[in-house]
UniProtKB/TrEMBL annotation:
Record key words, sorted: Carbohydrate metabolism, Glycosidase, Hydrolase, Polysaccharide degradation, Xylan degradation
Gene3D superfamilies: Galactose-binding domain-like, Glycosyl hydrolase domain, family 43
Lineage: Bacteria, Bacillati, Actinomycetota, Coriobacteriia, Coriobacteriales
Family per similarity comment: Belongs to the glycosyl hydrolase 43 family.
Organism: Paratractidigestivibacter faecalis
SUPFAM superfamilies: Arabinanase/levansucrase/invertase (SSF75005)
InterPro entries given in the database record: Glyco_hydro_43, Glyco_hydro_beta-prop_sf, Glycosyl_Hydrlase_43_Enz
Protein name, entry field: Family 43 glycosylhydrolase
Length: 488
């Protein structure tokens, strides 16, 4: 039985990014429509964990006509259910789900760097899946255990209109043979193979779908995170590129080859958008992202994940609506706070964790670089206090020149702001609708001295009906920001 709808805890604005509750960390999102609901499958991080994907698989769902009403479906598969992981020591990386010809639902997954693909099955999209077996050749050899096999990683599956089943996977970085049982596998791109209707047996051997270093992909070659959709009669392959902070796509008229580069769908630091030509000019801290596309009626959304806690191990689900580029593809989406909801109201309380832009006076950095906590010690970051469902997220370590950005809100009737902050520092928080702070809407005097949260308020000049809101700390010490309230 599914659970009641769970309030997302976005300060009264469900559907804003990240669109799941602040205590939930579901990266690698694969949204699928089954019946009248969207089901979101992904891996499962935990705040403060030392590595990726330490949790069992959970599922969330929402009505197709209300992407703000996400419901917790609970645990759908535990890592110890697989016969190769009875002790539960292996980690469940990014999965995918497809409905088979028999009407049942098939969950495809890879245990961390084990190099094979497991399959579980269930009679309902968000029920309790049961272990079925491992993708294998007709002689029983698991895919990924023959010399020359592609490295079985981040599986994606498509049951086509003609009933044929296609499995996609791959990884760019060379994998030690020790991780694949002593077998040397290929890690030079994305691979596709056909499965039999049993969803387990390889019907036709693998083909290289796209090489990592293919010059036709303009420096956006394949790294990981295979995902596949069929939209408007064509096949759209979504993947994380070698830049490792963006989702890109390629399209073809057939499922097993001929894919041409389409472009960037989203970068978690807006790299590639006007004014942000490279990582040095990013709008947010960079690291891996993984996700896919969702088509609902005439609208197409890209799902992705963001990083928190100055690490790659506490990632959260976000989504943006895509805009058609007039050539059959899409323009790169801008990372926003409003996400699935459209423009947010200019009156009400917002949690600081909804910041879509975050940088220090020295710009941004990568959370997946060497020693990120030390390298980013002077930078602001998203973090939390408390554990489990009682956690509260906030923006920590705002030093002089640090900026939080929120997009997009209707500020046409906004006349004031109240900040909830703490820390040890004094100065002002400048408020602007411009990232360069060429025009100030107001300034808030702040004097924080300790662990207790305190209120600080000021009047604001109104701005436009669809505006960004930027907060910049100017002064000594450092601040933490829990929330802000916009006042009429």
């Amino acid at each position: 039985m599914s659970r009641p709808d769970v309030a997302s805890g976005q300060g009264g604005h469900p559907g804003a990014n990240p669109f799941l509750p602040e205590w939930e960390y579901v990266p690698d999102g694969e949204p699928h429509v089954f019946g009248d609901r969207v089901y979101l499958y992904g891996s499962h991080d935990r705040f403060g964990a030392p590595i990726f994907c330490v949790g069992d698989y959970v599922c969330w769902s929402a009505p197709v006509d209300d992407l703000a009403a996400w419901r917790e479906e609970g645990v759908i598969y535990r890592r110890g259910q697989d016969s190769a992981n009875r002790l539960g020591l292996r980690l469940l990386f990014a999965p995918d789900v497809a409905r088979g010809a028999d009407g049942r639902y098939y969950l495809f997954y890879a245990f961390d760097f084990m190099g094979t693909i497991g399959v579980a099955v269930c009679d309902s999209p968000a029920g309790r899946y049961e272990y079925l077996g491992r993708v294998h050749y007709p002689d029983g050899t698991p895919y990924g255990r023959r010399a020359g096999d592609g490295f079985a990683f981040d599986p994606a599956v498509l049951v086509d209109d003609d009933g044929r089943v296609w499995l996609y996977s791959g990884f760019r970085t060379p994998v030690p043979a020790l991780a694949t049982g002593g077998v040397r596998t290929a890690s030079d791109g994305a691979y596709v193979l056909e499965l039999a209707p049993d969803m387990l047996t390889v019907r036709e051997g693998q083909r290289l779908l796209m090489a990592t270093d293919d010059p036709a992909f303009l420096g956006h070659g394949f790294f990981e995170a295979s995902s596949i959709r069929k939209l408007d009669g064509r096949y759209v392959f979504v993947y994380s590129s070698v830049a490792n902070h963006e989702l890109c796509y390629a399209t073809s008229s057939r499922p097993d080859g001929g894919f041409a580069y389409g472009g960037v769908l989203v970068s978690i630091g807006d790299v590639g958008l006007p004014g942000h030509p490279d990582e040095a000019h990013g709008t947010n801290y960079l690291g891996n992202t993984h996700g896919s596309l969702l088509r609902l009626g005439q609208r197409t959304y890209v799902f992705y994940h963001r990083q928190t806690n100055r690490s790659s191990y506490a990632r959260q689900a976000c989504a943006e609506r895509l805009v058609a580029d007039g050539r059959g593809g899409w323009l790169q989406a801008e990372v926003t706070t409003s996400g699935l909801t459209g423009t947010l109201p200019g009156v009400g309380t917002y949690q600081a964790r909804l910041a879509c832009n975050l940088w220090s006076a020295d710009g941004v950095g990568r959370v997946d670089g060497p020693h990120p906590r030390r390298a980013l010690a002077a930078h602001p970051f998203l973090t939390q206090e408390g554990r489990g469902r009682g956690a509260r997220q906030y923006v920590g370590n705002l030093r002089d020149g640090a900026v939080c950005g929120f997009k997009y809100l209707d500020l046409s009737q906004t006349r004031g702001i109240r900040l909830v902050a703490r820390g040890r520092g004094a100065g002002v928080v400048e408020v602007s609708d411009d990232a360069g702070f060429s025009r100030l809407l107001g300034t808030v005097d702040v004097c924080a001295a300790g662990r207790a949260w305190a209120d600080f308020a000021a009047a604001l000049e109104p701005a436009g009906p669809r505006s960004a809101l930027y907060l910049r700390h100017r002064g000594g010490g450092r601040l933490d920001l829990l929330e802000f309230e916009l006042l009429a």
